[in-house]
């Protein structure tokens, strides 16, 4: 079976690996610092070429997952001045088959190919045949439905991290106004989308709001908030409780839009960091809050993906399915 080279391009590092069929060769995974490939015309093509030179591998296929939009076969990185297309990737690797995916799309193609011990169920519910939903909670926020399987699988692109934050209480309204003012003070667009409260920076924004509500100083990063949460600090606890409640509301809205009877799958550092607090802060209760239809009370499940290399698996699965 022919080899394929895969790359998961993040804002800071790029992970590269080899795969045969849908199986990523674990001992082939290597990390490259993107900072070493900035300037002087360097980009992902040079990383792939260096990897192949170091390993001596000859590949027939190449697939990359890029943290940025992919349109008309061209990917543009959100946090890097890199662009890539099929000609560039084929020229760097000699591969005959080329695919470029958005990183969230790659995660969607990985579903069904991830080992069970890398999946943690955080809300029980029936799992039936049908669409799934992958939700990224990390540096940014995004979500996409996953339809079908194999060569028929489709993971449409999305930018739903910028939809409005759910507002269902007086506290939510105060939070929305607070975040709008906070963004305006930083010279940013004063729009409180879900990314402003559920991404990594969002937890810091929630802490600033909780601190203002308590009349104390704010200003912690998300990592500092998580550390304070582990110590039981009240403002950090309030911020995390807000995070879980808003996440439950946002996931419920997405579930009604996409009807993911095959399950909702959370990926990303924020999802994994908050997983131990989902039960205590009522993720299930918020998600299953009664609405006019009873779908949310009886259907759907939520699972956290605890696989650092799921995007690589998704790339391999996509190439194998479209061979």
Write a short abstract of this structure:
By secondary structure, the protein is of the alpha/beta class.
Word description of this protein:
It is a single chain. With 323 residues, the protein is an alpha/beta fold. The protein has 2 domains: 3-110 and 309-321, 2-Layer Sandwich (Nucleotidyltransferase, domain 5); 116-306, 3-Layer(aba) Sandwich (Hexokinase, domain 1). 38% of the residues lie in helices and 20% in strands. The protein is built from 12 helices and 14 strands. The strands form 3 sheets. Strands 1, 2, 3, 4, 5 and 9 form a 6-stranded mixed beta sheet that branches. Helix 6 (200-214) crosses helix 8. The relative contact order is 0.17.
Total of domains: 2
CATH topology of the largest domain: Hexokinase, domain 1
Helix vs. strand class: alpha/beta
Number of helices: 12
Q: What letter string, H or E per element, gives the SSE order? A: EEEEHEEEEHEHEEEHHHHHEHHHEH
CA distance, first residue to last residue: 12 Å
Number of strands: 14
In angstroms, what is the radius of gyration? 20 Å
Which oligomeric state applies? Answer: single chain
- Please tell me the CATH architecture of the largest domain by its name: 3-Layer(aba) Sandwich
Task: Please identify the top-level CATH class of the largest domain.
Answer: Alpha Beta
Strand content: 15-25%
**What is the averaged pLDDT score?**
94
* General shape: globular
Largest sheet: 6 strands, mixed
How helical, in percent, are the residues?
25-40%
Low-confidence stretches: none
């Amino acid at each position: 079976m022919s080899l394929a080279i895969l790359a998961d391009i993040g804002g800071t590092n790029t992970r590269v690996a080899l795969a045969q069929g849908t199986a990523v060769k674990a001992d082939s995974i290597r990390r490259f610092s993107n900072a070493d490939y900035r300037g002087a015309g360097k980009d992902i093509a040079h990383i792939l070429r260096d990897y192949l030179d170091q390993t001596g591998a000859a590949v027939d296929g190449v697939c990359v997952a890029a943290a940025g939009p992919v349109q008309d076969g061209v990917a543009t990185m959100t946090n890097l001045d890199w662009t890539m297309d099929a000609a560039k990737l084929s020229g760097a690797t000699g591969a005959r088959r080329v695919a470029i995916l958005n990183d969230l799309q790659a995660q969607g193609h990985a579903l069904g190919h991830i080992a069970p011990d890398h999946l943690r169920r955080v809300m029980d519910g029936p799992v039936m045949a049908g669409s799934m939903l992958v939700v990224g909670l990390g540096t940014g926020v995004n979500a996409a439905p996953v339809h079908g399987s194999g060569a028929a699988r489709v993971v449409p692109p999305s930018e739903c991290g910028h939809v409005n934050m759910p507002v269902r209480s007086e506290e939510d309204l105060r939070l929305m106004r607070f975040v709008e003012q906070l963004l305006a003070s930083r010279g940013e667009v004063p729009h409180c989308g879900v990314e402003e409260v559920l991404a990594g920076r969002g937890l810091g924004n929630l802490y600033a709001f909780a601190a203002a509500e308590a009349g104390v100083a704010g200003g912690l990063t998300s990592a500092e908030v998580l550390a304070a949460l582990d110590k039981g600090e009240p403002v950090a606890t309030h911020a995390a409780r807000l995070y879980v409640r808003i996440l439950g509301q946002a996931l419920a809205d997405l579930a009604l839009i996409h009807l993911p009877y095959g399950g909702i799958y959370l990926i990303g550092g924020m999802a994994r960091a908050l997983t131990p607090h989902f039960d205590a802060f009522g993720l299930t209760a918020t998600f299953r809050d009664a609405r006019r239809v009873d779908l949310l009370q009886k259907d759907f499940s939520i699972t956290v993906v605890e696989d650092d290399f799921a995007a690589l698996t998704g790339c391999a699965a996509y190439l194998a399915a479209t061979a």
